[in-house]
Amino acid sequence: MATRALIGYLNPNNTITTTYNHWDGYPENLGMGLKNHYSDESSAKNIANKGYISYMNPVDGDIEVTANNKNQRPVTIGDSDLISSLQYFKEEAEDTDYAYLYIPALGAWVMSPTAVKMDIFVDTFMDELDSDVDDEGREFDEEEDIMEESYINKWNRYIKKNVVDEHEFNFFTTILGDKYSENEIETYLKSDSFVEASRDDDMEMTADNASNWENEFFEFFDNTDNV
């Protein structure tokens, strides 16, 4: 009897892209294969976008796909609310035995059996996310305003690096005109240089500061390491 599984990848907008796995989806096989061969963000995203997998070899990570299912497309489910997306994830995995979700902010796969109640299924993932801090935690520091880093903070930081804010994008297209392409503007907005510049109190994104931002932008692309 086939041990079916659903493989998911958590996107920056909190939707989940899924691929169906038909044979040997239990943790000792598929789970081991995912952990050993698909644990970086790029390969995890790639495997979750296959659409259909017949079998994964846990030793080398090779996958097999039957001819009849080669054109099966991945399914993206959920919405901007993480818990809602996890609920959709369980529904999508209804006819499987295990669900595996790769969470880029954690750089890891999280697994849950599907034959559990909805709240247990969701809590399996959320508890793993919430526990991703040091065992001793970090105490609040009034001077530095530092608190224990939660999953939400980490995920928001990940989203900031992978999704461009529409207001920020429009600001740069306005002040730069056609001097740079949209892809170049997005590259800058996703960079650490932009994050660092944004922390400056004198760098509010207004018309008065347009020339300051132009200089920041030009300096970024003058540095060949950033291109």
Task: Write a structural description.
It is a single chain. The protein has 227 residues and is of the alpha/beta class. It folds into two domains: 5-130, no CATH class; 164-226, no CATH class. The protein is 41% helix and 15% strand. Strands 1, 2, 3, 6, 7 and 8 form a six-stranded mixed β-sheet that branches. A hairpin with a 4-residue loop joins strand 7 (98-103) and strand 8 (108-113). The longest helix is centred in the middle third of the chain and has 13 residues, at 118-130. It is elongated.
Stretches where pLDDT falls below 50 for ≥5 residues? Answer: 132-151
Radius of gyration: 21 Å
Report mean pLDDT, rounded to a whole number.
83
The biggest beta sheet reads: 6 strands, mixed
Number of helices: 9
Order of helices and strands: EEHHEEEEHEEHHHHHH
